[in-house]
Amino acid sequence: MEHASVKAYKGMGMEGWIARWYAANTRKGLEDFRALARRVAGELPPGSTVLELAPGPGYFALELAKSSSYQITGLDISKTFVEIAHHNAEEANVNVDFRQGDASHTPFADETFDFILCRAAFKNFSEPLLAVKEMYRVLKKGGRAIIIDLRRDASQRSINEEVEKMGLTWMSALFTKLAFRFMLLKRAYTQSEFEKFVAATGFHHAEIKENNIGLEITLQKQ
To answer: How far is CA 194 from the centre of its chain?
Structure first.
């Protein structure tokens, strides 16, 4: 389990121009964020406390904030992303508490949140097991966490097909394909590695669904 314990990659957040580039390109996929927000809103009662780990530009959190009266917090290690997310929240006229911090050492009290989402970021955490333990700690009893991320055994052909659907310029598409091939796939985990993570925490087991290039892991605190 060496790949899945502590990584040489130190979980540094995207900063500066690379964060702004990422924000601009992921904005083109807003409908995906809206669809996920609608799905989550259909499962959470109004007034629920929600934490998004590594929200980046904040698109999911902002869409969820538009749908109901949730208390939403976003925690990202990147100062640039927190600044971008604050700006986006002001433009959207919604209230989300975006703050800077580490998913493996969160600044929240035990049993604070009803729901946690971590989308497309878990593979970048330098202490992934600690991150899952933190999810367990800050969730209320009966609360759920969902991790959505790339799986390491996804084929390059599948990756290329997904990138083509993003509507990027040819240069951004090329850059994105190279990033998947040489960086993101190497950082990602397999289903069996996630199962080992979860078994080492208070969650004990997880519901894991596999799709074309990724995994969706649902965790519930009993």
So the answer is: 15
What is the token pair recorded at 18? 């690379």
Beta bridge partners of 117: 52, 146
pTM of the entire predicted model: 0.88
How distant is the alpha carbon of residue 33 from its chain centre? 11
User: 88-119, pLDDT tens digit by residue?
Assistant: 999 999 999 999 999 999 999 999 999 999 99
**Closest C-alpha to 139, from 117, 114, 105, 119:** 114
Burial class (CB in 10 A: 0-12, 13-18, 19+), 53: buried
Neighbours of 18 (CB within 10 A): 12
Gap between the Cα atoms of 149 and 155, Å rounded: 15
Q: Give the closest residue to 58 by CA, choosing from 41, 32, 33, 77.
A: 33
Q: Determine whether 1 is exposed, middle or buried from the number of CB atoms within 10 Å of its CB (0-12, 13-18, 19+).
A: exposed
Work out the burial of residue 153: count CB atoms within 10 Å of its CB; fewer than 13 is exposed, 13-18 middle, 19 or more buried. middle
